[in-house]
Write a structure and sequence with these properties.
Blueprint (H helix, E strand, L loop, with lengths): L11 H12 L3 H9 L2 H14 L7 E5 L5 H9 L5 E6 L2 H14 L4 E4 L12 E7 L8 H11 E12 L5 H23 L2 H12 L3 H11 L3 E8 L4 E7 L8
Parallel strand pairs: 1-2, 1-4, 2-3, 4-5
Antiparallel strand pairs: 5-7, 6-7
The structure holds S-adenosylmethionine.
């Protein structure tokens, strides 16, 4: 049976929004529990890669920002004068981000928007980060093209998401782990096993680190490369916008 939150058509967005609306209140807690806190390290790596080599203030877009983890980390790490904007299409996730913003006196801005139709002019950002977001978007190539459009020449994009391990044995163990533990998480924290079973099921159709590298090239991004974490179960994809804007 197909997961009720997953489809590869025009219903993908509304289903994903429904799921994250349901998860929002306990989303941060479940991340810590299911990754044993490791997601914090991977998110720090994402920001380090996004800002590497920058010598001045940066305009940073945190796409699919959810409750704002990457936005707040970017604000902490970027040079003075930088500006961070988080964008997400699920209002309850943004509500948590805005609450955290008040609690921490952050200056990050949060806006509602769709990754496939960003409400920003061409070249508006020096860096784009996407944490566990690309896998949820119906058309990842179109989303990467949209990221390239809003990036300034030589601006950088970093995508963090679940990966696919290299070895067959590691792949089997990993899939079995996800298919056993995730529904349990969904049931325990949200009374609905399908919420977190969505992770392994969406991963089946997601190209992961190697496929995203190819999609980045196809989207016209330069220098596409990836780094793996934890035996390839997590992937970090990095690329840059071309030095001169070309046809999109
Ligand atoms: C797994 S959460 C990740 C949140 C955060 N980046 C993190 O790493 O904790 C995925 C987020 O992507 C958002 N999202 C999915 N598709 C989107 C789209 N097309 N446009 C904007 N946001 C989207 C969801 O609303 C959700 O908040």
């Amino acid at each position: 049976m197909t997961n009720k939150y997953l489809s590869y058509d025009g219903q993908r967005g509304p289903k994903v929004r429904e799921m994250f609306s349901r998860l929002a209140a306990r989303y941060d807690l479940v991340n810590d529990v299911m990754s044993f806190g490791l997601h914090r390290k991977w998110k720090k790596d994402t920001i380090r890669l996004a800002l590497a080599g920058r010598t001045g203030p940066a305009r940073i877009l945190d796409l699919c920002c959810g409750t704002g983890d990457l936005s707040f980390l970017a604000e902490e790490s970027a040079l003075p004068g930088s500006r961070v904007t988080g964008v997400d299409f699920t209002f309850p996730m943004l509500r948590v981000a805005r609450r955290r913003r008040l609690e921490t006196r952050s200056r990050s801005g949060f806006a509602q928007g769709d990754a496939l139709r960003l409400p920003f002019p061409d070249g508006a950002f020096d860096a784009v980060t996407v944490g566990y977001g690309l896998r949820n978007i119906a058309d990842p190539l179109a989303a990467l093209r949209e990221m390239r459009r809003v990036l300034a020449p030589r601006g950088r994009v970093v995508v963090l998401d679940f990966g696919k391990p290299d070895g067959r044995a590691a792949g089997v163990v990993y899939r079995t782990f996800l298919r056993t533990v995730m529904p349990l998480m969904g049931w325990l924290f949200h009374g609905d096993p399908e919420t977190y079973l969505y992770i392994p099921e969406s991963l089946e159709g997601y190209p992961a680190q190697r496929g995203v590298q190819a999609l980045m090239r196809e989207a016209g991004l330069d220098g596409a490369r990836y780094e793996s974490r934890l035996l390839g179960t997590m992937g970090l994809n990095v690329a840059e916008a071309p030095a001169a804007p070309g046809p999109l």
